[in-house]
Specification:
Length: about 375
């Protein structure tokens, strides 16, 4: 029987060609970048509903496909063209890889660290609140010296007023009368008593407000450290607590009327006048100014007394994550290596390999570049020289 099979027909199926390492690395890189972006994107878009989650997934998928396409074209098309000295192909290839890589790196790093940066900002604000409450508490406690100083001023001015009424010991006119000096001293003494009474009443409420401020600070720390609350809910509760602290801080200023005392001391520092008696005017004014100085010495610094609660910080944004990149440097470096460094390295190695192959194909061989010198032989007989 005649054998009809041709000797050139294959006897088995050949193995599929193995994928190049560059293609494998490129695929894994794009997949890894897409997955990292998928974890980062929900925080970037503030995903709270299924629609937001769908948007995050869609952005991540299309971005990963774009990244793979740009890098694949840069390596398969751009590198060979750049290897034959088409410089624009190299510029477009590297530029495309860097743009898509930078976009991935910025989105991935900021999205992964955004929640942590927001927590750090809220921690910092908690420290500012603690300083505010501490300063308010110290001011309220140090003002306990104000009421005794006011009472001492009241007693001193009342004594001088009685002396003026009895013997005109200040004005030196007559043997005691209720003149302008006595009326001035009575008015200042009465004002000292009124301000001291307000201080005494405020001190009874002061301790209650200080206790509430301490409880609210503890609540702020508890909410901030809670792992069961979503970030949006946590921010809402923390802002409400900060508002309560601001309200109680304002109440503390009201029940401890430092500004009222300061105004009264300023009134005393204006001195007084005894008509027609410069010496008595000097003594009266000096006495009133000394009383004002003793009261002011018990008051806190004016800028500390009027300092307000720090404003509640806004939600952290992408820019905030880069301001705090030092705290998350390992994450930033890993994201940059995956999204930027590796694709560029793959392209460069492919380009250098192709460029070397082209150079080897076009470079002249040694025997062509340096042909052998002709051998010197004997001259033929009868030949001409």
């Amino acid at each position: 029987m005649k054998n009809t099979s041709s000797s050139t027909e294959p006897r088995f199926l050949p193995d599929k060609p193995k994928a190049a390492f560059a293609d494998i690395a490129l695929g894994l890189t794009s997949l890894g970048s897409g997955l990292m972006l998928g974890f980062a994107m929900p925080d970037l878009v503030g995903a709270q509903t299924w629609t937001d989650t769908a948007k995050a997934v869609l952005i991540s998928l299309t971005a990963a496909a774009t990244s793979y396409s740009v890098n694949k074209l840069a390596i398969d098309k751009g590198a060979p063209l750049a290897a034959i000295n088409l410089k624009s192909a190299g510029v477009v290839s590297i530029g495309g890889i860097m743009v898509i890589g930078a976009a991935f790196w910025a989105s991935t790093y900021s999205g992964i660290t955004l929640r942590r940066v927001d927590e750090r900002i809220l921690h910092t604000y908690g420290t500012q609140l603690d300083s505010y409450v501490h300063s308010r508490t110290q001011i309220a406690q140090t003002t306990a010296r104000v009421a005794p100083a006011l009472r001492a001023t009241q007693n001193d001015l009342s004594t001088k007023s009685q002396c003026e009424l009895a013997s005109s010991c200040i004005s030196g006119k007559g043997h005691g009368r209720r003149g302008p000096v006595a009326r001035l001293l009575e008015d200042r003494a009465s004002r000292a008593g009124q301000v001291a009474t307000q201080f005494s009443e405020g001190e009874q409420k002061r301790d209650q407000i200080i206790a509430r401020l301490a409880d609210q600070l503890a609540a702020y720390r508890q909410v901030l450290s809670s792992g069961d609350l979503a970030m949006a809910e946590k921010r809402t509760r923390l802002q409400r607590i900060a508002s309560d602290i601001a309200q109680n801080g304002g109440m503390l200023n009201a029940v401890v009327p430092v500004q009222l005392v300061r105004a009264y001391a300023h009134e005393l520092s204006g001195g007084g006048e005894v008509p027609g008696n410069p010496e008595a005017t000097r003594q009266l004014s000096e006495s009133l100014r000394n009383q004002a100085s003793s009261i002011v010495a018990t008051l806190p610094a004016e800028d500390a007394a009027t300092a307000g609660v720090p404003a509640f910080p806004g939600q952290a944004g992408v820019t905030d994550t880069f301001w705090q990149i030092g705290a998350f440097l390992p994450i930033a470096l890993i994201a940059a290596a995956v999204d930027l460094v590796l694709p560029i390295c793959i392209w460069l190695y492919v380009f250098w390999g192709l460029y070397w192959d082209k150079f080897r194909e076009t470079a002249p061989r040694d025997d062509e570049a340096n042909p052998p010198a002709p051998r010197r032989g004997r001259k033929p007989a009868g030949g001409v020289s």
